[in-house]
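Hey, can you fold this one?
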Amino acid sequence: MKIIYSASDARAGLLKRSPVELQETSAGLKQRIKEVFGKELTLHEVVGQILEEVRKKGDSALFEYGRRLDGVELNELEVKREEIARAHARVSRELISALELAAQRIRTFHLNWKNRSWIDFGEGGLGQWVRPLGTVGVYVPGGRASYPSTVLMTAIPAKVAGVREVIVATPPGEDGISPETLVAADIAEVDRVFRIGGAQAIAAMAFGTQSVPKVDKICGPGNIFVQLAKRMVYGMVDIDGFYGPTETIIVADETADPTICAADLLAQAEHDAMASAILITTSTKMASAVDREVERQVVELGRKEIILASLENRGGIIVVADLEEAVELVNGYAPEHLSLMVNDAWSCAEKIRNAGGIFIGEDAPEVVGDYTAGPSHVMPTGGTACFGSPLTVEDFVKVTSVIAVDGKTLGAIGPAAATIASAEGLDAHARAVNMRLAKIQKRRV
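Sure. Predicted structure:
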């Protein structure tokens, strides 16, 4: 791994952010776009065309894009309940038990959410009603891969929130949707599952089609086409956020175990070639030891080529003067995942302002956050942890303000409201208040 010995060099290079959609489109992807659409299009133009076609043609566009983009001939879009039930027989009992354990912990974690409706009747009734969304769509990446954990991490918080209907859209592979994904959907009590992938899935959930219901909110990770589609339909529906490649920073001092640090870096790098796996350490000895461990351990791993590409593209080790400098770099980068392998990790954690999730100490690997710890693994990426949060029950409710003012309170606050309205040139506003104030005055007389 490349080792950087200057914080300023790290900021200018390894820790410099670049929006995913601004990255250059590969030659292979450009050729594929030309083959499918018959002309050269930008990524935004591709997504825009897909959205418009689905909006106009509904199901027929989904079948067409299934053939053209996914190479799959579909007879129906929705997965029948019997198919979901049969999937259990195709998945090992060990994995089903693991998914059930993960589901139980995710559900328990989110049940701790405290935000509730409240009304203060002291002035007639001021407060808030907190109510669940009606329908939520969850996008789950699929095709050649299987991500049952994503189903659990998105659908369960929605169900805990009380969402009436949760649907899942996931692209089928040559053999259909993976049974692991279907089992996870069953465990998470998902209401409906659809065989749709890519931007067309986002369009279907945003606009609704003959088969797919229009949802109130779309959640879940996905490739650049999925993320651009979410961005373009935002406003017609709500979304959870925009997600780029996954990222982890490990902060380690001289007390850390280099074999564990290396293992965690490799675990992050195996996601894909654009994943970021970065070590920040106060020890040059630790930097060298972790570098050697990465070289030793990577040869044993099945996704070696992806890992090496990731480490070459976005991985590295940064040596800093002290933990204060490390914390400063972390807060500037705002990583999705932060692992603290330092003495007195809790004290260090309290200084972190920007991170999606903080993993404190050697016994808290980021991997358990991916699967079984409890909090959702859908976390802010690309520096959005400066203002964004992991997916929670909060994402699946809406708040309605309740205003019931009695006559006494209106007498106290109404004149000020009328004064402000008049200052803004809104005479009708002022009159609506003053008429009530006059009526209240007559009642008193």
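The mean pLDDT is 93. Let me know if you want another pass with a different chain boundary.
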